[in-house]
Amino acid sequence: MTQPSQSVLINGFGVLFVILNAFGLGLRLSVGKLLAVAFAHWKIAVCALVVNFVVIPLLFVGYLRTIASSIPGEIKVGFCIAALSAGMPFAPLLARLARADVGISTTLLVVLTVGTIIVLPLGLPLAVDAVDAQLKASTWDYAWPLLLFLLLPLILGCCFRLWWPDLAPPLARWVVRVGILCLLFNLNFTLVAYWSLLVQTWGTESYLAAVAGPFIGLGCGYLLVTGLRVKDVRIRHAAEATTAVRNIAPMLLMMIFPFAADPLVTVSITILNTIGIATVLLFVLMWRRAAAPPDTRPRRPPDNAPAAVRR
Predict the structure, then answer these.
(1) What is the pLDDT of residues 201-226, one digit of tens each?
(2) Structural domains in the chain (count)
(3) Which residue in 87, 97, 205, 305 is a FRET match for 71, CA 20 to 30 A apart?
(4) What is the pTM of this model?
């Protein structure tokens, strides 16, 4: 069990990350541009909603009921939370790293984040029942942290950008940096506080189940863009990266509030996110290397070339 001081640090940095990340996203959003991209690529947006809130949860639940049926119920709950938490906060950063379409990635991030706020409180009780876990909570227990710490800061960030557009860009940079720092503190304190449980969980095959998570997301992202016959590689990779990793922000809120007394939920979310981000980052780096522009620098003629060529 964690000490009260450790819980305060873990939960405090987790909530701060969620608030700052949502507020920073609002500061960076141009609503007009967002709507334009959403309407221009509405098929991708609609299919992303279906894939993230229907296909991926069904695959997660099916995996937990069959292949991973022996893992503890609390860990299954953590995976169910992950299955219904779409919209990776760092998706635009991953898209930029992969030389993908950042506009598409940002649009899908906002659409999926809003979708998570709606779907997670409604779908989580059904998912938990489907995997036969004994942990129960009401829809409102799931909803209020999302509304207070995720949706409200996002709206406030958009309003700040609208009222003080000149101040928004520099503020957004600092807010995002501090938010990432809070997430790193949260992760480090979680690893220290729950290290013994992380080691004990190794024998339950939960890590194997966690490895399946990002590959389910990557596979569904690939099927999404392939089914829509998207030819632009930048758009394909943006959609795949945004679908591949689940949204850490609502997962943190669920483990801090409704499931604060269930440490294995925290352990499962920590395992899933760590493995998921590492796996998708490898794919992003491969995409970046494949998309690297050819070397267009003029080559220096060899020293033994004719003088006219050297000139």
Answers:
(1) 866 777 887 888 889 999 999 999 99
(2) 1
(3) 87
(4) 0.89
